[in-house]
Amino acid sequence: MMKLIFLLIPISLTFFSCSDSSSTKVTEADNITEKKTTSVTEIPRTDSILKVHTSSSYIYPIDQTSDDASLKRFVSRLRQCVERKNLPEFISCLDTGIVVSYGGGMHGIPTFLDEWKLNKQAEKSALWSKMNLFLDLGGAWKDHQKTEFCFPYPQSDILFEHIDQDLDWYRTAVCISPQTIVYEKAATNSKKTALLSYEVLEIMERGDHFIQIRTLDKQVSGFVKTEQLILSADAYPILQKVDGAWKIVSFAPFD
Predict the structure, then answer these.
(1) Into how many domains does the chain fold?
(2) With 0-12 CB in 10 A as exposed, 13-18 as middle and 19+ as buried, what is 48?
(3) Number of neighbouring beta carbons within 10 Å of residue 177
(4) What's the chain look like in SS3?
(5) Does residue 140 fall inside a structural domain?
(6) In this structure, is the dihedral angle defined by the CA atoms of residues 175, 142, 104 and 88, taken in order, positive or negative?
(7) What is the mean pLDDT of residues 91-100?
(8) The domain that contains 105 carries what CATH number?
(9) Which of 80, 76, 79 has the alpha carbon at shortest distance from 68?
(10) Is the pLDDT higher at 37 or at 114?
(11) How much is the CA Rg of the chain, to the nearest whole Å?
């Protein structure tokens, strides 16, 4: 019996030694895996190192619709008929002499309907998506007397008064995002060079999906997605009281 006990002791010690060695190896492997994981997560993303360009040439979002109770009611009615694509109701919001083009001398509801392709298949007109965007962005007064109101807010002349530069409206755009990405080329897979926040920009060249821009201080240039800009020369609605009731009196470009 004693001989059997003495034989079992070395075997037991060998077993425990192997067990400890195996445990140690697993721990070392875990450490290696943990180190690899840590090194991967520490690699910075490209987006995180982009800095927002700071400038005094900006127009922050604003919506002054609530300044006037009657205007607020009119805009609410306008929003409902736009969301429902209710053309007869929308037409009732237009002034009979609505301006469609100042330079071209185009005005009147029939001309407006023709311009926005509302005479046939009105539900497919680009007007509805455009108006939804404008209303969502919010509007602002165009004059200090508060007789004219416009959508969207970047079309308000008043909001540009703090910018000490002569602007060419045909070549002016405003970022409508707090983080507008500037690309090196006109493609989303190209290098990202900067971030812009509600900045007023100079248009260098227009495109369908991208616009080549430059900041007014000439510190940043590149390409920005068209959908993240409001172009000052594009058509937009101006609201004014006609015979005591709010109407859209103009939906024209800067021409």
Answers:
(1) 1
(2) exposed
(3) 17
(4) CHHHHHHHHHHHHHHHHHHHHHHHHHHHHHHHHHHHHHHHHCCCCCHHHCCECCCCCECCCCCCHHHCHHHHHHHHHHHHHHHCCCHHHHHCCEEEEEEEECCCCEECHHHHHHHCCCCCCHHHCCHHHHHHHHHHHCCEECCCCCCEEECCHHHCCHHHCCCCCCCCHHHEEEECCCCEEEECCCCCCCCEEEEECCEEEEEEECCCCEEEEEECCCCCEEEEEHHHEEECCCCEEEEEEECCEEEEEEEECCC
(5) yes
(6) positive
(7) 98
(8) 2.30.30.40
(9) 76
(10) 114
(11) 32
Residue 231 in tokens: 């172009």
51 falls within a domain:
no
The whole-number average pLDDT for the span 17-43 is 38
* Integer CA distances (angstroms), 57 to 165, 234, 246, in order: 9, 20, 32
Q: Whole domain around residue 167: which residue ranges?
A: 65-252
Q: Phi, psi (5° rounding) for residue 30?
A: -60, -40
The amino acid at residue 252 is A
Residue 10 is assigned to a structural domain of this protein? no
CB-based contact 126:116 (threshold 8 Å): yes
Q: Which two tokens stand for residue 90?
A: 């929308």
pTM for this entry: 0.80
> Strands 140-141 and 106-107: what pairing?
unpaired
Q: In whole angstroms, give the CA distance from residue 221 to residue 215.
A: 6
Tokens of 234: 């594009």
- Only one residue has tokens 């008043």, namely 158
Residues near 186 by Cβ (< 8 Å), separated by ≥ 6? 207, 209, 210, 212, 223
For residue 46, is it within any domain?
Answer: no
Joined tokens for residue 32: 């290696």
For residues 213 and 32, what is the distance between their CA atoms, to the nearest angstrom?
A: 48
For residue 157, the tally of other CB atoms under 10 A from its CB is 15
Structure tokens at 182: 């500037």
**What is the per-residue pLDDT for 146?**
97
